[in-house]
Design a protein that fits this description.
The chain is an alpha/beta fold. The protein has helices at about 25-30, 65-70, 75-95, 100-110, 135-150, and strands at about 1-5, 10-15, 20, 45, 50-60, 115-125, 155-160, 170-175. It has one domain (about 1-175). The longest helix has 20 residues, at about 75-95.
């Protein structure tokens, strides 16, 4: 099992996963991460020969500060940019002759000929006095915005959170 902490959450990926915390990887930090304005997703993973690109946002306690980003599409654009830059980084480190090619080439191979799966894991509070369904409405809008921004790559885009019954196979997420 691979376990990682991200924000106030602990992600425990089961043995079926090959997963890396991309934004902490030296190949990211010493490679594409050196470009100004480069962005990185939190996790890249392989499961059942598919590539999963996962971004984590924990807005609990920061609802007001992040409301605009959720509504106006800014967050969807940010995640799409992170997907783009992360894929470019994986292509770069998978090139022949690179010392870490053997580690990263399977991730690149998982992106070729199969749908790439993008997951935005987001935790957020419902506005006071509003039904919990308002969060579902925000997530639906965010999902549509994200799908629109990633239509060049994939239609396999989803929003997940702790409240989901079965978010991803062989993954457990817990509050810290």
């Amino acid at each position: 099992m691979n376990a990682f902490s991200e924000r106030r959450l602990r992600f425990e990926f089961g043995t079926a996963w090959d997963v890396r915390k991309w934004d902490d990887e030296p190949v990211y930090r010493e490679g594409i991460g050196r470009l100004s304005e480069s962005k990185a997703l939190d996790f890249v993973g392989r499961l059942d020969r598919s590539l999963f690109l996962i971004e984590v946002k924990d807005f609990r306690g920061y609802r007001i500060e992040n409301r605009k980003r959720l509504v106006n599409g800014e967050l969807a654009i940010e995640v799409a940019q992170k997907v783009r830059d992360t894929l470019a980084g994986i292509v770069g480190v998978s090139g022949e002759g690179r010392i870490d090619c053997a580690l990263w080439k399977p991730f690149l191979d998982a992106a070729v000929g199969r749908p790439v799966r993008v997951v935005l894991w987001i935790e957020q509070d419902a506005p006071p006095g509003k039904p919990k369904g308002i969060v579902d409405q925000l997530n639906n809008t965010l999902s549509q915005q994200l799908k629109q921004n990633l239509r060049w790559l994939t239609s396999h885009v989803r929003i997940a959170s702790l409240g989901d019954k079965a978010p991803l196979q062989d993954l457990q997420v817990k509050n810290l």
